[in-house]
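Homework help thread (please don't just give me the answer)

Our assignment gives two proteins as sequence + C-alpha cell strings and asks us to describe the second one. The first is just a warm-up. Here they are:
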Amino acid sequence: MNIISAKNYSDLSRRAAGFIAAQVTLKPDCVLGLATGSTPIGIYRDLIERYRRDELDFSRVRAVNLDEYRGLAPTHPRSYAFYMREHLFEHVNIDEDDCFLPDGLAEDAEVECARYDELIEELSGIDLQLLGLGHNGHIGFNEPGDAFIPDTHLVTLSESTIEANSRFFDEGEAQPTSAYTLGIRGILSARRILLVVSGASKAEALQSALCGPVTPRCPASVLQLHPDVTVIADEDALSKMGL
C-alpha cells in the first residue's frame, strides 16, 4: 500500500487527478470506477481542466459508478447520475452511453444488483477504482456490519451516513434511506484502487482502515488485502497515523 501525504485538499485533488489522468493516458479505453460525495469534486474539476488543455481524451473511457440512491430518477438533482453529469460527464468528451450507474428506479432490487455485476464483468472489470471514506469507515455504501457483502446489493443507510449526506439535501427535503452499492468483492476486483481522504474528521476512520484489524465493522479495512492500493490523504486526515 502506497500512502501519499498531501498538504491540503487542493493538493490532494491535484495529486489524485494526476493519478487518474495517468491511467487514462496509459490505457485510453480503461474502465474507471468513480465515486461521489464532496471529496471527489476537486478531483473532477482538475480532470476537466486537463481535458480543456487537451491533455486528456475521455472518448474511449468507460465509467462505472459505485452507487446510486434507490427511488431517485437519473434526472433528480440529488441522484448520483445527476452529480456525475454536473461534476464531470457533461464537461469532457466521454460518451454518455459509456457511463453506468445502478438504476435507482429499478422495480426488482435483486435483478438490478445482478444486472450491475454482470455489466462490470462484461466490461472485463474495473481498471482503477476511486474511493472516498465515510466517517464510520464505509466505502461506497458498504456500511459497518457483521459480514462483508461481496456483490452489488441494496443497503439500508446508517443514521450517521444519512446525517453526513444531509448537507446535499435542502431542509425538509425527503432524503433516501437506502441505496444500491457495489459490493466488497466488486471493489477488490478492481486492478488498482485509489482511496482519497480529506479532513481531520476522517482521521480516526483512516487510522482504523489502514492500521486496524480487517473487519466488516470497518469496511475500508478490507483494502489492506488488495495488492495495489494508493492512498492520497491530506495532513489533517493523516494526523492520527504518526507519519
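The one we have to describe:
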Amino acid sequence: MGTPALTPLDLLVLGLLQERPMHGYELYQLIKAERIDRWFNISMPGVYYALGKLRDRGYVSEIRQRRGSVDKAIYLLTEAGQQAFFEALEAHAAGHVPVHFDYDLSIYLLNRLPIERALALMEQRMESLRQWQMQVRETMEQEPDLNPRLRAIFDHTLRFITMERMWMGELIESIQGNAGALEAPGKRGLMVMAGDLRQYHLPDLLRLIASGKHSGTLAVTDGVLGRAINFVRGQPNCIAGYRLDQAEATPPSMEDSLRAIFDLFRWQAGEFTFDQSQPQHQWCIPIQLTTTQLILEGCRWVDNWETIRRLVSSPEAVFEVSMRREELEQLGLTEAEKAFLKEVDGSRDITDIAGRLQLTLFEASRIAYTLLAAGAIRYGDMERIHLRRAFREIAELNCRGTLALRKHPSDTSCEQAVNRACQDIPIRIESGHIVDETSPDLELDKLAHVYRTFLSRQIEVIRQYFGMDAARELTARTLRQLVPELQAVAERYSFIRILHP
C-alpha cells in the first residue's frame, strides 16, 4: 500500500511548522492571525487531529514540556515531514485542483519552496492548463451537435482556462522579479518572507532558508541599524552590517561585519525580509561559514534569558544528541560545548548536567540553547528517555552491588570484563557509570535490544566472578531499588526477565 495522501489541512500544518516548532494552540492562533480560517474551514480540534496523524506518520515529532503543573506538547517538523511537504505541495499546486478565488493554499505557501522549484511548479501548472484547454477544444470540435447547455458549459470552461493562463503568466513574471499585474508599486513580491523578530526566532528562520535551499538576501533592521546576509542555495555567501542613517564611505572589515551579524542574534525585535530576487548589499563581505556554523557562532553571543527561553523553557528539559560524531567534529565546538555534549545522554536534564560540570543554570542553559539552535542536540523523546533511564539505573545498580563482593573497592576487573564482553556494542562502564554511545537515530526497539544485550552479558560476568547465588541476590536487590516508574519501563522492555529469569 502507498503512503496515505495529505489533506489540505495536513499540508498547511506542515508548511507552518517549517517556520518554527509550535504547540497546537499556537498553530491555530497563527492560522487565525493570517486569516486562513476565513477561506479554509479549520477548527482547533481539527488542528490537533492533524498533528496527531502527522506525528503517527513520522512527519512531526512531539516534545512534552512541563510548565508549572501543565504539560504542553510542542511539535517539530521532521526531515520526512519536510520531504512530504515539498512533494505534496507540488502535487497540490500542479494538478487539476479547483481554483480557490478567496485564497489559494499553494500560493500562500509558495515562498517555502526554493525559487527554482517554485518556477518549475508554476511552469508545470501552465502546461497542465494548456493541455486542458486543448482537450476541451478538441471535444467541442469533435462533437458539433452538443446540446446548447453543454456547449455553454464548455465555452465557460475555455474562458476560465484562458483567464487562468493569463493570471499564471503574470504569476511567473512576479516570481521572476519582473513587473507584473500581480504586484502593485511598493508591494512585496510573492516569494518574499517578512515579519518581526518578536514573532520569528532568527535561528529558525535561517534553518528555514537552508532547508529550502533558497537564494536571496535576508535583511533585518531595527530602524537605525541594518544587517544583511546573502544566501546561495541555502548557504551564506556574504554578510553586511550598516547604519540606515548614514552612508558608508569605505567597506567595513571582515571582523566588523562578523561582529555586526553575530550581534543580530541578541536582538529582541527587528523587521526582516527575505527576498529571493534581492541582490546582495554593496558592502557584502564574503564568508566561509555554513548556515549551521553561522547559527552556532551567533548563538554564542546570546546573553539573556528571554532569548534562551525561546528554545530552553525549563531546567528539567532532557536532550539527546542528534548529529553523528563526524558531523559534530566539523562544527568546531568549544571545550565547554564538548563537555556539555558528553553529558547529554537522553536521561540527564539541564540541572543534572549543570551540577556535573559545575556550571550555573544560566551557563548550562545557554550552551543547550546554542547546541539546540545549531541542530547538534534535540529534545529527547519521552519514551526513549524512560528507556535510557531504566537501563542506566539497572546497569549502574548492578555494578554498585558488586562493591561488597570485591576483594578491594578499587578492584575494577569485573568492569573490565564486562567491557571486554561488550566490545561489539557502543556501551561501556567506567568508574561505575555507563557511557552510552548508541546512535541517536537507532529505532526504539533496536535500542532496547542493545540494552538487553549489555545487561545479559553484565550479569553473566557477575555470575562468573562472584557465583550464581551472589548474582541472584544482587539482581533481586537491584529490582527492589528501582522506583515504580522505572520498574514499569523495565517490565515493558523485558529487562526484568533478564534480572530475574
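TA reply:
I won't write it for you, but here's a hint about the kind of observation we're looking for: Confidence is low (pLDDT under 50) at residues 178-187.
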